[in-house]
Write a structure and sequence with these properties.
By secondary structure, this protein is of the alpha+beta class. It has a seven-stranded antiparallel sheet with strand order 10-11-12-13-14-15-16. Helix 4 (589-635) packs antiparallel against helix 5, helix 6 (691-705) runs antiparallel to helix 7 and helix 7 crosses helix 8. The longest helix is centred in the last third of the chain and has 47 residues, at 589-635. The chain is globular. The chain starts with 7 loop residues before the first strand and ends with a helix.
Length: 730
């Protein structure tokens, strides 16, 4: 496709570095957009091109010293009553809202598990005021303009990317969240209404329209989803360092904009992923922002910032007026032209190689005479087919995809493509002594269904010419479970749910999910049905039993010592049987014991933390005292006392550095412990569905806030509703 001329509408070269992902544009005086970025040394600079030029003493760039490692920067109308944007700054330990115009803190909150990502805006239906939404390790918290917590939910791992958008079309914003467990979740209020699993950590999300959004992964993959279905993706050897979506063609549809670690900027069509425009910078791109920066009535610019402080603005095609008639080449950088030539050359080489292959085959056929049924052509019977199936191999602890031909042709090699199963997204298997049947071992890391595209190379026994057969194979979600007649020992942990569904339907679900045949013996009069299995991944047993409870439906009990697995089973059943609200009784003695230990550790770390803070405060006072005495001695030329004072200062300084190291280690341990707590709540939430799931998460948060461990355990075990009735828990 022709590259679109995207005119840089302005260029600025700033003195300071712009750190990756740490930039925002805010109207801090209510009118003029200011570029605000984190730079080295724990500083933030605010670049205001509209600062009054006539007053010599207002520089265009102002600095804010945060003196901590800045991890997130955002801005927005947090308080609609004041009519100007507030700057939000996140660090490893806290989040601060700052009024740039008035030069004052709006609020300051300690966030023990750190800030990884931040957005500002309205979330869901339960409050109409905008929130500062903070993504930490395994949880998401929303603060209002007073710093009050108005929103909290758990997610599976460290949050890396967030976007606010109305995905469902109900008029209120959902929250798109990408995290380190490869999941992209959509939250409506505090409930995850949709999840898709990717192949790597999610580092960028951008909403396009409706349920369509773009995503970027840590391994250089960029693509687009429509709901849970992926439309396209591409993969690069470079890292994605900035990710966003803007309508730059002026056709009313947003394009995907990607900044790369090698300084390239790409704009891709959201339908096809085709590159419609490129540009390049001398250093990695650190942010892609949007604002009407020049305020010339031409609408918003896309603002592209790079690490070394170069900033360029780009206009939409339509907003350029007469400039739109210029030729593409006039805007294509030299190195972009170069790149296009290299690409075309590569295509030419590939096509030439293909042509040579065809010519060689034609010659061989011609030499073999008419009819040409010789070994050179490598012909195989016309009705040759390749079949595929799945078998379990308990000795090797894995599953096997079994490929077979339907005649005496043999399989020489196979290439399997699946990003969910193979780390490198593909696996090539060569069979040195080819047979009719070939087996390929597979071991998915998670219980999630996966599509495997297989290319099988088939030939007659003696020929060296291959025919490529394409086979699409669907790997079921729970394919790593081997059925057993009985379990040597029933796991101590279990989850029990009562569902309004016939036993026959449940038996059918068990068969579909685990590739079994339990439903053969089950009819409407059966008392119960079930199955026993062992997981080939970690050798943990799993048993499912459904008991007929008459008119009330059935009681389903899942026994497994892994809370995660139980959650996956319940979620699969909920989805397959179309259940709405599901409440459960959860009994996980090992997990609860671990949680009890973790909470004790959290208390210890917090106590140690406050003790370290007081120690540092005491030491600071001593330092002031010593410095004054040393200076006095210097003025009085009392060298002996002066030397002693500076000696003591040096010792105290060493002591402080050691204390600081302790604080860092303590903070990291606290982070890990808090993360464990959040992950346990997330796992317990997966044992439920609908309202009970949402209420359980909210109740757990309350219990943690008031440090009521007994209530927390009750909620995880029985759910929020019953725990409240039994304990009068508030």
């Amino acid at each position: 496709g022709s590259k679109m001329p995207l005119v840089p509408s302005f260029r600025i070269k700033l003195e300071d570095q712009i750190l990756q992902g740490l930039a925002t544009v805010g109207k801090f005086d209510g009118k003029n957009p200011c570029l605000t970025c984190a730079t080295s040394g724990g500083k933030i600079f605010v670049y205001d091109p509209y600062s009054r030029r006539d007053e010599q003493d207002t520089p265009k760039v102002r600095y804010l010293n945060i003196n901590k490692n800045i991890t997130a920067v955002a801005s927005g109308r947090l308080d609609p009553n004041i009519g100007r944007d507030i700057l939000l700054v996140g660090t490893n330990t806290d989040v601060m809202a700052y009024d740039v115009e008035e030069n004052r803190d709006v609020f300051f909150k300690e966030v023990p598990d750190g800030v990884n990502a931040m957005v500002c805006g309205r979330v869901g239906t339960h409050n109409q005021q905008p929130l500062a939404v903070v993504g930490g390790s395994c949880n998401i918290t929303g603060y209002d303009a007073d710093g009050e917590e108005r929103f909290w939910t758990v997610t599976g791992d460290n949050v890396r990317a967030m976007a606010l958008a109305d995905v469902t079309g109900d008029g209120s914003n959902e929250l798109l969240v990408g995290s380190d467990d490869y999941e992209i979740r959509v939250f409506a209020n505090d409930d995850a209404i949709s999840e898709v699993t990717e192949a790597e950590k999610v580092v960028g999300l951008a909403h396009l329209s409706g349920s369509r959004f773009g995503y970027a992964l840590e391994n250089g993959t960029v693509g687009v989803y429509e709901g849970r279905k992926r439309k396209w993706r591409i993969k690069s050897k470079n890292r994605v360092t900035a990710f966003s979506a803007f309508d730059l063609t002026g056709d009313g549809r947003k394009e995907i904009c990607v900044g790369w670690s090698n300084g390239k900027l790409e704009v891709r069509n959201q339908e096809t992923g085709e590159v419609v425009y490129k540009d390049s910078f001398k250093s990695p791109i650190s942010a892609l922002l949007r604002a009407d920066y020049r305020q010339d009535g031409g609408g918003d610019d896309m603002i592209c910032c790079s690490l070394d402080g170069e900033v360029r603005g780009y206009k939409t095609q339509g907003a350029l007026g007469g400039a739109g008639s210029l030729k593409d080449d006039e805007f294509m950088d030299e190195n972009v032209k170069e790149e296009t030539l290299v690409e075309l050359n590569q295509k030419r080489q590939d096509l030439l190689a293909e042509l040579k292959g065809y010519e060689r085959n034609t010659r061989a056929l011609y030499n073999a005479g008419v009819g040409g049924e010789t070994e050179t052509t490598g012909t195989i019977p016309k009705d040759t087919k390749v079949n595929s199936s799945l078998e379990m191999n308990p000795e090797e602890g894995c599953g096997e995809v079994v490929l077979s031909t339907n005649n005496d042709t043999v399989i020489k090699a196979a290439i399997l493509f699946s990003e969910e199963i193979f780390d490198e997204e593909a696996r090539f298997v060569y069979f040195p002594n080819p047979q009719r049947v070939a087996k390929v071992a597979i071991k998915p890391k998670k219980d999630s269904a996966a599509d495997v595209a297989i290319k099988v190379l088939v030939s007659s026994r003696t020929s060296s010419t291959y025919h490529v057969f394409e086979v699409d194979f669907r790997l079921p979600r729970f394919c790593m479970y081997l059925p057993l007649k009985a379990l040597p020992q029933v796991p101590a942990s279990s989850v029990q749910v009562r569902i309004a569904e016939r036993l026959v339907k449940i038996a059918k679900w068990i068969d579909d999910a685990f590739m079994l045949q339990t439903s053969r013996e089950v009819d409407d009069y059966s008392e119960e049905c079930g199955c026993h299995m062992v997981c080939l991944r970690d050798s943990k047993p799993l048993s499912i039993r459904a008991v007929n409870a008459g008119d009330d439906g059935c009681d389903v009990v899942v026994h497994c010592d892994d809370m995660d697995t139980c959650g996956e089973v319940i979620q699969d059943m909920t989805k397959a049987l179309g259940l709405g609200d599901v409440e459960c009784t959860a009994d996980f003695p090992y997990d609860m014991e671990r949680l009890r230990e973790t909470l004790t550790r959290v208390d210890e770390y917090n106590a140690l933390r406050s003790r370290l803070v007081t120690d540092v405060a005491d030491a600071s006072n001593t330092i002031k005292h010593l410095v004054i005495r040393a200076e006095d001695s210097r003025i009085l030329k009392d060298w002996k006392t002066m030397t002693r004072m500076y000696g003591e200062l040096r010792d105290l300084n060493r002591e402080l550095i050691r204390e600081h190291q302790k604080r860092v280690e303590n903070h990291e341990a606290l982070l890990a412990a808090l993360r464990d707590v959040n992950q346990t709540i997330q796992k317990a939430a997966k044992l439920r569905a609908g309202g009970p799931k949402t209420r359980m998460v909210a109740a757990c948060r309350q219990a943690i806030k008031v440090n009521n461990v007994h209530a927390l355990f009750k909620i995880i075990q029985l759910g929020a509703d019953i725990a409240e009735q039994t304990a009068g828990f508030e």
